[in-house]
């Protein structure tokens, strides 16, 4: 039997030795998850002895994290916007920066309106963007689209968890391809893969060694998907397009929107002051 506080200290030291940026915080999260308690309880129960069964649950999680597997995959959930989402290995963990995309969409979709609004979320991953918009606006109907089976399964799971089955269709295929031509799309939203191929190897291990290339690799200059999606959205959408972009990509993506007839083209900064989202409307 080892007291909880000692296990916490040892876990923190191990995670620090593996280069984890916030080892104390993560040790608390892993321990709380393994014991099925809230993080605060760790301090209220600090001298409680842990048995072999509890330690047996914790050890494999700590070992996974020590190999730099994303924490959210180990915990199985992640907070995004107002939601708690399931996230499974093989699916990109939604980032706080992506909430900028959700906020930009909510600014354009009125509250307290009964008229249905159709949103296509291209490259849905966990479903984060489309589901956050649907959860905040009851009149929204979403097409959550991806080409990967793991993201689609994860999105389906989140649709169920959130009880959004009546308003979200989960579709497999590239870009807007899987939305039948007769179905209306008002807004296209997307956080597509946008890291330039050569930069991927320089990302932190969670990204370069674990998260799927399909979710990250945007080709030579990172702009491959925008070149395909912007013209497709210009043809299909009735109202406009909102795109998350990588560092220094906003001017290039803005130009693409200008070239394809979007108006009011503008950029939106994330909380770190980086231009993170490019938006444009289509004339009625
Ligand atoms: C950067 S992740 C974004 C996931 C999620 N929207 C989020 O913000 O957390 C990009 C997603 O796009 C998907 N994807 C890549 N190429 C695609 C394509 N041509 N059509 C549809 N989805 C694609 C990937 O499988 C991945 O789930």
pLDDT < 50 runs, ≥5 residues: none
How would the global form be characterised?
elongated
Q: Which ions, cofactors or small ligands are bound in this entry? A: S-adenosylmethionine
Number of strands: 11
CATH architectural name of the largest domain? 3-Layer(aba) Sandwich
Strand content: 15-25%
Summed up, the domain count is 2
| Mean pLDDT reading | 97
CATH class of the largest domain: Alpha Beta
Helix- and strand-based class? Answer: alpha/beta
Query: Level of helix content?
Result: 40-55%
SSE run: EHHHEHHEEHEHEHEEHHHHEHEE
Distance between the termini: 69 Å
What is the CATH topology of the largest domain?
Rossmann fold
Can you tell me about this structure?
The chain has helices at 4-17, 23-35, 39-44, 52-66, 71-75, 99-108, 128-136, 149-161, 197-200, 205-210, 213-216, 224-236, 250-259; strands spanning 2-3, 49-50, 77-80, 83-86, 117-122, 140-146, 168-172, 185-190, 237-244, 263-269, 275-281. By secondary structure, it is an alpha/beta fold. It has two domains: 2-67, Ubiquitin-associated (UBA) domain (Helicase, Ruva Protein, domain 3, Orthogonal Bundle); 80-281, Rossmann fold, CATH 3.40.50. A seven-stranded mixed β-sheet has the order 7-6-5-8-9-11-10, sandwiched between helices. The chain has a two-stranded antiparallel ribbon with strand order 1-2. Strands 3-4 form a two-stranded antiparallel sheet. Helix 2 (23-35) crosses helix 4 (52-66) and helix 6 runs parallel beside helix 7. The longest helix is centred in the N-terminal third of the chain and has 15 residues, at 52-66. The chain is elongated, with a radius of gyration of 21 Å. The termini are far apart. The model has no long low-confidence stretch (mean pLDDT 97). The chain binds S-adenosylmethionine. Residues 92, 94, 98, 122-126, 128-129, 145-148, 151, 174-175, 191-193, 214-215 line the site of S-adenosylmethionine.
